[in-house]
Amino acid sequence: MSIDNHTLINEFPQLKDKIHALKTSDHHFARRFEEYNDLDREVRRLEGEGSPKADETMEELKKKRLALKDELYKMLTA
Q1: DSSP-derived 3-state class of residue 52
Q2: Which of 36, 44, 59, 73 could bridge to 68 as Cys pair (CB 3.0-4.6 Å)?
Q3: How does residue 12 score in pLDDT terms, banded at 50, 70 and 90?
Q4: No. of H helices and E strands in the chain?
């Protein structure tokens, strides 16, 4: 089973330099970036284990990850 890697650099390779710049200069971005990465790792870990969580729980985690990605993207393109 292939598990998609949803790191921001994989999602937005064209923004790699801006991601790095904001991680080092914007504390709010850096915190949200870490939160996104932690959530992405958790989702991938659970998917790798055959998704032992209830479907509703996985959907909620994925919705949170998507909301964070949207927030970070807005910060990157502002």
Answers
A1: coil
A2: 36
A3: very high
A4: 4, 0
